């Protein structure tokens, strides 16, 4: 059982998605609560297509906001006192030493790190501290990764001397391109990225050939492309040291718990011991809060802007506040005369469908069933679909099934929508509903008169600058009466929710999941673009226009037994 | 949302409804009730244990457990304040629970702070002095060791509990709708 919403991933054709019989279409469907909505483009956006930037960094343990300027220097890890247990990854606690002094318990230095999850203690690796704060800076002195860090810095400095020019020579075609020809690579990268890449100084390489390289590979002087000028790097001692000097023979002789599991080592910053007794704790990785933008190249509007200080968002353009929520529930099985086991000819199916369209099911014909029970072949199920309106004005919905493409694989079911057109009342404050609860005729439906205030709109979910979607539609009382006369079978309305029926006939030869798409088109009244974009007027002026928005949902109603 | 969620009924008279709309089972064990504050419209189900009696032994009034609105404490949940030795003597510290907090069946909670909209699954053990920030989700059967800090909008699971995932930006709305929905569906038969 699921209802997923379609994201067009910037496809502007507004064509329905491929049906579920094409597995590739599944990547375009996600739950409503994970989708965004760009007002500028009037389109649904998803996590796969939004542009993401880091807004802020914080430590998930001490919750400290790390200034982004420090993040690189701190190597994306908390530089205060946050370490993860090398055995179970729980955040370590700082524990003072307790001793008796003059009949009094005194706690103080030395401090150690202990794990409240598995009782591991940093004393086992000889880590003890004079102070209870700034463990990372205290450790910097004895950190065994220091040698490797120094080595890395040195090799980086060495290479950086070549990173001055971003103006490499034009590419010369050659059959022999030395793999170490870095300026050539830089140029290729610049070409691929359509921008300058800070590359190795190609100018220095001009006409010069490194003697060693030239003599080793001979004949290179004749090639058009040449070696960059790159002096030798003399390694420091880091690679030789380290405490991981155990050979494979020694490791194989040991018991399993003595050898550190790969899962405990692969996140380590530096090559470390394979003995579980000497695996060192690592600083805890920082987390990020993300800013998300509309991915459309000519739009790039902010969809999500987090607040570094709280769980609120300064900007939150989510589809939940724009598209009606669709839910499926209350499954009933229609008691049909004929047994469903005998396969039916296509004409017969057509015939039965037509019959069903004409005759309305009477009460007592249907039997309630659990939603998760397996579906039976040949059976007809009647579901309720609930549409909840997130807007402060009524909307009108047209519910259809999109036409499948010509050569679509065969389907295992038929869908019939008895009521294709219906309205959903406006969202209101909770107290406003209480009075109407018993009443099926929601005054909201009559109501062109009800215009929400600006405040009422902008406070919802912390959304800023949300455009009012004021709708008056054809929902005057006469319009309602008309609809009544037409007979909306099985339509239930309560507050800002309307429930309609949906019939699904499982074909006699069906197998697997019964999944189908529905096209939902809703009409709302939108403000004409206000002269001041920041502050859209909420008054229902004559400039208001009716607008429609179409989206697709994918329903999975269960598996055939 | 929750259009098809069924009513959750209890036998009439088995729950006490307070002026502020709290619904407290007569079968819940609540000790030291004067040290417990319920924000209103919260539900304490049968068999839940709230240890308001474990208070700090100094003079004056002490709030031991404070709980916000629209919380749901399921059957068999134990909430007790965390305690430790401080300056030579054992002391309890208060538990602060925000709005819209759901705690699943048989979980044992000794946290110091549970933020708004936190959802704790069933059969969890939340260790002493744990701090769970707003809108976090603790999956069923998770064990959070003493003093674990759970950042906002994250999902934790396992033993010992680990950070597994983060939640979508809409999580607050979803949680609030869920908690308010549950309260309105929780009625006497
Ligand atoms: Zn997308
Ligand atoms: Zn856009
Ligand atoms: Zn930290
Ligand atoms: Zn541990």
UniProtKB/TrEMBL annotation, chain A:
One Pfam family named in its UniProt record: Dynactin_p62
GO cellular component: dynactin complex; stress fiber
Stretches with biased composition (Polar residues): 470-479
Basic and acidic residues: compositionally biased ranges: 480-491
Subcellular location: Cytoplasm, Cytoskeleton, Microtubule organizing center, Centrosome; Cytoplasm, Cytoskeleton, Stress fiber; Cytoplasm, Myofibril
Alphabetical keyword list: Acetylation, Coiled coil, Cytoplasm, Cytoskeleton, Isopeptide bond, Phosphoprotein, Ubl conjugation
Keyword field contains Disulfide bond: no
Assembly and interaction partners: Subunit of dynactin, a multiprotein complex part of a tripartite complex with dynein and a adapter, such as BICDL1, BICD2 or HOOK3. The dynactin complex is built around ACTR1A/ACTB filament and consists of an actin-related filament composed of a shoulder domain, a pointed end and a barbed end. Its length is defined by its flexible shoulder domain. The soulder is composed of 2 DCTN1 subunits, 4 DCTN2 and 2 DCTN3. The 4 DCNT2 (via N-terminus) bind the ACTR1A filament and act as molecular rulers to determine the length. The pointed end is important for binding dynein-dynactin cargo adapters.
Protein name: Dynactin subunit 4
Classification of source organism: Eukaryota, Fungi, Dikarya, Basidiomycota, Agaricomycotina
UniProtKB/TrEMBL annotation, chain B:
Keywords: Cytoplasm, Cytoskeleton
Pfam families xrefs: DCTN5
SUPFAM superfamilies per record: Trimeric LpxA-like enzymes
Cell location: Cytoplasm, Cytoskeleton
InterPro entries assigned to the protein according to its UniProt record, in alphabetical order: DCTN5 (IPR047125), Trimer_LpxA-like_sf (IPR011004)
Gene3D superfamilies assigned to the protein according to its UniProt record, in alphabetical order: Hexapeptide repeat proteins (2.160.10.10)
A GO-annotated cellular component: dynactin complex
Family per similarity comment: Belongs to the dynactin subunits 5/6 family. Dynactin subunit 5 subfamily.
The name this protein goes by in its record: Dynactin subunit 5
Species: Kockovaella imperatae
């Amino acid at each position: 059982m699921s209802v997923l919403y379609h994201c067009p991933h910037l496809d502007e054709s507004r064509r329905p998605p491929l049906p579920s019989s094409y597995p590739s279409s599944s990547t375009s469907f996600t739950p409503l609560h994970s989708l965004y909505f760009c007002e500028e483009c009037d389109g649904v956006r998803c996590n796969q297509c939004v542009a993401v930037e880091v807004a802020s960094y914080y430590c998930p343990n001490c919750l400290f906001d790390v200034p982004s300027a420090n993040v690189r220097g701190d190597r994306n890890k908390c530089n205060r006192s946050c370490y993860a247990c090398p055995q179970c990854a729980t955040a370590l606690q700082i524990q003072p030493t307790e001793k008796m002094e003059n009949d009094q318990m005194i706690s103080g230095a030395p401090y150690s790190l202990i794990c409240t999850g598995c009782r591991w203690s940093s004393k086992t690796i000889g880590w003890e501290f004079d102070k209870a704060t700034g463990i990372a800076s205290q450790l910097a002195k004895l950190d065994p990764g220091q040698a490797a860090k120094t080595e890395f810095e040195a090799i980086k400095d060495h290479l950086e001397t070549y990173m001055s020019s971003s103006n490499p020579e034009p590419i010369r075609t050659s059959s022999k391109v030395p793999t170490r020809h870095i300026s050539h690579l830089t140029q290729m990268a610049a070409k691929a990225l359509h921008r300058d890449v800070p590359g190795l100084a190609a100018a220095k390489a001009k006409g010069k050939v490194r003697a060693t390289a030239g003599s080793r590979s001979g004949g290179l002087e004749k090639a058009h492309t040449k070696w960059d000028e790159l002096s030798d790097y003399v390694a420091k001692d880091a690679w030789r040291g380290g405490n991981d000097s155990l050979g494979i023979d020694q490791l194989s002789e040991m018991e399993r718990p003595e050898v550190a599991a790969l899962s405990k080592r692969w996140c380590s910053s530096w090559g470390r011991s394979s003995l579980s007794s000497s695996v060192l704790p690592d600083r805890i990785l920082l987390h990020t809060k993300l800013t998300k933008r509309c991915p459309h190249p000519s739009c790039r509007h902010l969809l999500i802007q987090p607040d570094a200080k709280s769980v609120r968002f300064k900007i939150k353009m989510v589809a939940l506040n724009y598209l009606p929520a669709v839910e499926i529930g209350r499954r009933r099985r229609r008691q049909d005369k004929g047994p469903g086991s005998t396969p039916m000819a296509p004409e017969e199916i057509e015939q039965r469908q037509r019959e069903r369209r004409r005759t309305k099911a009477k009460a007592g014909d249907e039997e309630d069933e659990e939603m998760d029970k397996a579906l039976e072949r040949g059976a007809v199920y009647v579901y309720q679909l609930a549409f909840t309106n997130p807007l402060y004005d009524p909307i009108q919905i047209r519910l259809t099934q999109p036409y499948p493409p010509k050569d679509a694989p065969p389907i295992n079911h038929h869908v019939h929508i008895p009521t294709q057109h219906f309205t959903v009342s406006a969202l209101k404050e909770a107290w406003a509903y209480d009075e109407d609860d018993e009443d099926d005729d929601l005054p909201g439906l009559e109501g062109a008169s009800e215009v929400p205030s600006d405040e009422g709109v902008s406070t919802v979910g912390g959304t800023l600058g949300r455009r009012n979607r004021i709708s008056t539609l054809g929902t005057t009382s006469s319009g309602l009466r008309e609809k009544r006369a037409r007979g909306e079978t099985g339509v239930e309305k309560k507050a800002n929710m309307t429930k309609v029926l949906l019939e699904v006939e499982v074909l006699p030869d069906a197998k697997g999941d019964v999944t189908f798409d529905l096209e939902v088109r809703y009409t709302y009244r939108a403000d004409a673009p206000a002269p001041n974009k920041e502050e859209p007027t909420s008054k229902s002026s004559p400039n208001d226009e009716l607008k429609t928005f179409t989206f697709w949902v994918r329903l999975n109603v269960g598996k055939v037994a | 949302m929750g259009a098809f969620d069924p009513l959750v009924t209890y036998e009439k008279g088995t729950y006490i409804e307070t002026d502020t709309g709290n619904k407290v089972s007569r079968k819940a064990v609540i000790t030291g009730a004067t040290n417990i504050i319920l924000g209103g419209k919260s539900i304490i189900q049968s068999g839940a244990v709230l240890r308001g009696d474990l208070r700090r032994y100094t003079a004056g009034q002490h709030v031991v457990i404070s709980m916000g609105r629209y919380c749901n404490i399921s059957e068999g949940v134990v909430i007790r304040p965390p305690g430790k030795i401080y300056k030579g003597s054992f002391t309890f510290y208060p538990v602060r629970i925000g709005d819209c907090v759901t705690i699943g069946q048989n979980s044992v909670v000794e946290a110091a702070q549970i933020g708004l909209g936190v959802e704790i699954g069933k059969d969890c053990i939340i260790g002493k002095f744990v701090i769970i920030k707003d809108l976090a989700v603790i999956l069923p059967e998770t064990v959070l060791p003493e003093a674990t800090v759970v950042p906002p909008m994250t999902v934790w699971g396992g033993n010992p509990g680990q950070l597994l995932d983060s939640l979508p930006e809409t999580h607050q709305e979803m949680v609030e709708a869920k908690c308010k929905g549950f309260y309105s569906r929780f009625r006497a038969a």
